[in-house]
Amino acid sequence: MTRPGPHPAPWDLPSEKEETAPADGRVVPFPDRTTTRPTIGAVPVTGPAPAETDVEVVDPTDVEVLDTDETTQARPVDVLPQGSGANWLEDRRTLLDTAPALVPSYLRSREEFTDAARFLIEYYARMGAYRATRSPVYLLKLVSRSPRGMGRALSHWGRWALDIEANELRKHAATGNRTSEYMMLSRQHTVRIRARLLSSLVVALGVTLVGAVTLGTAPAWASMSGIVAMLALFGAAGRNADSKPIIDRWTSPHLQRELTSTEVVAALEAIGVKGRVDFVNPIQTDGPGWRAEVDLPPGYLTDKVLEERAKLAGAMRRPLTTVWPESDTEAHPGRLVLWVAKKDPAKAKRRLWPLMKQGQADLFEDIPFGFDPRGRVIPLNLMYTNLLMGGVPGSGKTSGVMVVAMAGALDPACEMWVYEMKGSGDLDPVQPVCHRYVSGDDDEHCASALDALRKLEKELKRRKKIIAGLPAEQVPKGRKVYPHLAKDRKLGLHPLLAIFDEAHTLFEHEEYGKEAADIAGRLIRKARAYGIILVVTTQRPDAKSLPKTVSDNVSTRFCLAVTGHIANDLVLGTSMYRNGVRATMFDPKKEAGTGWLAKSSHDTQIVRAAFIEQAEAIEIAKRALALRTAAGTLTGEAAGETITSEDTTTLVDHLAAVWPAGEDTMHSVRLVEALASYRPDTYGPWTASDVPVGEMPREEQRAHETRMATTLSNALAPFGVNTGQITKRGDGGSRKGVKRTDLEAARVRSGAASEDD
Questions:
Q1: Average per-residue pLDDT for the chain
Q2: CA triplet 362, 604, 256: central angle to 5 degrees?
Q3: Burial of 391 (0-12, 13-18, 19+ CB in 10 A)
């Protein structure tokens, strides 16, 4: 069978009403796509419309027969338009789901209603006071224009009294040789003038008489007020169209013009997004700004717009801090949501942290973290998670960590460990309520931070054992810390917030860095379920300063301004830059404290951390101290206790420290003597005897050495190190001893066991 040639273009296809099939076969046409309903607000495609052409008649013998049954109907391949009968019920359900609330939100929320009422009262009181203080200036402006107003009033009176408007009619009648009409108009003109002058004289005499009586009997202030009011009226009459307004306009330079579709399309074209832009919905007011939802032309993703945010704002001729493009991932990668603020947030009044003046926090509930570009409070839940913050210096990272620290301080049950490893004292306000507080970047501060990580891991093991021993009815949904368990002080399962600010100082340390990274990685993987919240911040997000065990396993992330995609993905997670979540879009100078808050790879939003000044933080900390004092939850340094570093080294570590270089084997007696010299408080009793060794008989001396060797052997048994006969010529011959390889193997096993725990 011979098949037809290439298919014609959609606009060349015949309509469904046209006859398309001969008697022995029929070609099923596609529906005419040119009749589909256009998208709301779509920008029309320019250019001439395609010309209509006749449908080529094909020989029936050359046409592929699809169905010879005359009852077969052509089936459309396009989705039926909205409102069609087939989808009527679904359309109504969709409309109902998206319908606005019956009662406005400010009538359903007492807090919102109170806030709105307070604002209106404050606004009109401020406006009234503003006008009242300038009323003398307004009055002087009116009085200064009163001469012109008087002249204008006299001019209008003269034209009315002398019937000037009739002059043209009389002139027209005179020039047209209409004598009778002219005489009639002249008589009427004379009558009007006589009546108007007489009435004007009566009014003038009456006003003069009343004015004279009033001025003579009224108080001076009333007389002056009347004169000024009269002059003000004449001043209002003396205003010209080009005169400056009497009342000053109260303007705000950061108010933005209304957003239009023309502006959006032109701005997208300016940054290289060319083609048809479809507006999904009309541009509408969304909070303190405008919202535009558009589908970019085919082939364009929202990533380009997000990356070119500064150029987009420049093309729109708007401040950078007012233009916020986002990607609507729930729709498709080409759906752009553009929100433009009505006024520049950078010049607006600072929004206060909701817990600034009153209230307390509960880490088992959401805490207020910051605000989105629309000014809405963005919550953050710290329990069962850990937090990583990163950004270049000056990006406002301190704002974010300060909010978290203040929230922890305002929860009386929360135990706080804070290590501010920059030494700037940014977090000093929370020191009075901290179980542990260290500020500095020297070796001793890094050693203290490492000691804290070791103790946190030890605390993790303790909590695991306690929860494992609880009955199942107390942990019904899994083995983790629940609010009712945290309230039981005997269990010691209260929230523990550990903040390591500028943690790269510790992770990059030559001596402590590797161990700190290993422990931090284990804590991040396991501690969050047991009420231990780890917060790590860094201003140098790179592979060396941010260990992979930390960046790969952290739950919640807050990335402020960074300089490249590598740093972006180290903080936010792998492929986040490719997915359009790019912190490179922020300007650290203009948008300090603003970043991407990622609670998961699919839950990301732009947030500006609430800014808390040092003086305000001190006042908040005072309130937190009072709350903890009343609850009796002050511990550690806050309660006056001395925090000492914990020795986590073991016997095998001590043997490695005293082992002579170059020796593969050592007698146990020599090792015990070395240990007694290295740590006399711990190992001195191993060598103790009633008689000095040199004064002992030979048999007693051998028995004493045997006891020392046996003691070491018993102590090494838990580590899996066996002691056997070691022959060393010139050093006592054959005695019990230890091999260096066995010791190193035990150290490796000990490290692996710690990691498994």
A1: 81
A2: 100
A3: buried
